[in-house]
Each structure stands twice: as C-alpha cells, then as structure tokens.
Amino acid sequence: MSPAELLAKVAQFDALIVRSGTKVTRGVLEAGRGRLRVVGRAGVGIDNVDLQAATEAGCLVVNAPTANTVAAAEHGIALLACMARNVSQADAALKAGKWQRAKYVGVSLVGKTLAIMGFGKVGSEVARRAKGLGMHVIAHDPYAPADKARAIGAELVSFEEAIAKADFISLHMPLTPATSKVFNDESFGKMKTGVRIVNVARGGVIDEDALVRALDSGKVAQAALDVFTVEPPAKDSKLVLHENVTVTPHLGASTVEAQEGVAIEIAEAVGGALRGELAATAVNAPMVPAEVRTKLLEKLRCR
Ligand SMILES: NC(=O)c1ccc[n+]([C@@H]2O[C@H](COP(=O)([O-])OP(=O)(O)OC[C@H]3O[C@@H](n4cnc5c(N)ncnc54)[C@H](O)[C@@H]3O)[C@@H](O)[C@H]2O)c1
Ligand SMILES: O=C(O)[C@H](O)COP(=O)(O)O
C-alpha cells in the first residue's frame, strides 16, 4: 500500500503488520484510532514505528525479534567476504567484457581484527562465523554481558578501542537517538587508514556524507551496505555509486527460511497481543502506564 492508501484504510483493522518499508507514523496511528489495537513489525528494527504515538493511541507494538537473526548474520558475512575480494566490482567488469585480475586483488580476512558494534542476536552470530574464518573478534556493546562475548571468543571493548583497533567493522546496533550518525567524521578519523565497514543494521547509524568523504580520502578503503538512511536511496547517490562500495537493497532478512519464520513469529505475537496475552512483551509495554495497560487489556479481551 502507498502511504495514502494506508492512511485511508487503517481504521478498518484491529491489527497492522508491516516490514521496514512501511512507516507507521503518528498520522497512521491517529487515522487508526478507535479500532487499531496492535502494530506488528514483521522483523526486528522498530525504528519505522512511532512508539510514542502508538502508546498515546493505545496500540501495542510487537515485533518478530528472532526469526531473521541468522539470515541477517549470513548476509553480513556474505558482504564482508564479497567486499574483501571485490566480488561485485569484478563481476560487473567481467560482464562488461573486462578481464581485470590485477585491478581486483583483494585482502584476506584470516588474522584480521573485526569489531562488532552491537553484540546482540545478529552481532553475536556474526562473531561466531567470523571466528570460524580465523578473524580476531572484538566487540562494543554498552549492555552486553562480558561472559556472553567471552563464550564466543570475542572481547568486549570500549567504542574508542573497537574503532581504533579494527581492520573491519561490522554494525549491528539498533537505530535510536543515541546511535544516530555515531559513525561520522570524528569517528572515521579515529579508525585505521584503510578500514573496511559492513552495515546490515540501519543506514541512519552512519553519517553517509561523512562516509563518502572518508571513502574519497582513502581513510575507509571499502564499505558494504545493505541499509541506507533513505530507502531506496537516490539514483544518483554518491555513496551507492562509489566504486569502493558494495550495495544490496536491504536484503538482510530476505531468505525463504527467515521470511517463513518471521511470518509465524509475528502472527503469533499479534494474535497473542489481540487476545491480551502478550502485552507484557510488547516493545512499547514499558511506556504504557500500568492503569492504561489494564484498561487496554480489558478492551482487548472484549473484542
Ligand atoms: N539488514 C537487515 O535486514 C536486518 C535484519 C535484522 C536486523 N537488522 C538490524 O540489526 C539490528 C540488530 O538486530 P538484533 O536482532 O541483533 O537486535 P538485538 O536487540 O539482539 O541487538 C542489538 C544490540 O545492540 C546493542 N546496542 C544498543 N545500543 C548500542 C550502542 N550505542 N552501541 C553498541 N551497541 C548498542 C544492544 O545492547 C543489543 O545487544 C536491528 O535493530 C535492526 O535494525 C537488520
Ligand atoms: O529489522 C529487521 O528485521 C530487518 O531490517 C529486516 O527488515 P525487513 O523485514 O523489512 O526486510
């Protein structure tokens, strides 16, 4: 549905299930007032849902936090390897009739230091896989327990230490006000010259203009990006068209297996929320005052 169609139709439904391409704005939530009770995000990131407006409209927001974890981690590893070996550039060149073996000499992963920024579900699965590739893995996450990292053979370090020591950096934190554009001119300046960056988290954690500057100067040798601040990015985006950048159109969760799992996970979560059973696990539950939650649950049970 287009945003206009969604606004026109949302009031006919008790629940709305979306992927990342649909923005559940204050306008959508207000248009749904009176009937809409649950917003289901068929995936992890809930940065496309206005949680405050949902809470004010009496809507629970639930997500599908686990079913696409491995798909996203596998895509991160795929991008890491493709980037290091110039796979997309060499593929395009060969299809254009150019056999350029010298131009596309790559770099090895084995023995290199990989910094995982955000050591949650996806980040820790990327870490496991990177250990299998012989990489030295460090991680930064202000909330992750050190023993979880240790069990995987990764070391938790500060933000500054992670970005300063890494040959490769893989981003796995959610987009929040605190993580917006944390990768910017200042942080790129503190990285090793020739660092390589993978982003399967959210485009908004990177200042994309700063990344273009860092790529142009050679500070960042390469980037592999699945996500962008604006999706789809502009056709003439300097970042997307940069010769040292490998891109995919937000495919991290797009495997047959992950989408089947997500569909089941979100159907169960939305069904549970509509029956009033899963209210406590709703993403915005902590924002709903206890007395409002009780009333909401009563309403949900009545429907
Ligand atoms: N490209 C895709 O298709 C795709 C697929 C799945 C997830 N994602 C993105 O990846 C993100 C992570 O997914 P997940 O399932 O691992 O979520 P998660 O909640 O399990 O992990 C996120 C981790 O980030 C940490 N974190 C929070 N703030 C941080 C900060 N300032 N610095 C470092 N770490 C911080 C959290 O403590 C948590 O451990 C999602 O929010 C989503 O945006 C993208
Ligand atoms: O946050 C997520 O789960 C991913 O970005 C996947 O989003 P999508 O299901 O809209 O592709």
Task: State the main characteristics.
single chain; 303 residues; alpha/beta; seven-stranded parallel β-sheet; three-stranded parallel β-sheet; 10 strands; 14% strand; globular; binds nicotinamide-adenine-dinucleotide; binds 3-phosphoglyceric acid
Order of helices and strands: HEHEHEHHEHEHEHEHEHEHEHH
Q: How many E strands?
A: 10
Strand order of the largest sheet: 6-5-4-7-8-9-10
How many helix segments? 13
Give the end-to-end Cα distance, rounded to a whole number of Å: 26 Å
Q: What percentage of residues falls in helices of 4 or more residues?
A: 25-40%
| Class from helix and strand fractions | alpha/beta
Approximate strand percentage: 5-15%
Q: What is the rounded Rg? A: 21 Å
Bound molecules: nicotinamide-adenine-dinucleotide, 3-phosphoglyceric acid
Largest sheet: 7 strands, parallel
Poorly predicted sequence stretches spanning 5 or more consecutive residues: none
The coarse silhouette is globular
- How confident overall, as mean pLDDT? 95
Please characterize this protein's 3D structure.
The protein is globular and about 65 Å long. The longest helix has 19 residues. The model has no long low-confidence stretch (mean pLDDT 95). It is built from 13 helices and 10 strands. A 7-stranded parallel β-sheet has the order 6-5-4-7-8-9-10, with helices on both faces. A 3-stranded parallel β-sheet has the order 1-2-3. By secondary structure, the chain is of the alpha/beta class. It starts with a helix and ends with a helix. Helix content is 40%, strand content 14%. Helix 4 packs across helix 6. The site of nicotinamide-adenine-dinucleotide (NAD) has 31 residues, from helix 4 and helix 6. It catalyses: (2R)-3-phosphoglycerate + NAD(+) = 3-phosphooxypyruvate + NADH + H(+). Belongs to the D-isomer specific 2-hydroxyacid dehydrogenase family. This is phosphoglycerate dehydrogenase. It is an enzyme of class 1 (oxidoreductase). Pfam families: 2-Hacid_dh (PF00389), 2-Hacid_dh_C (PF02826).
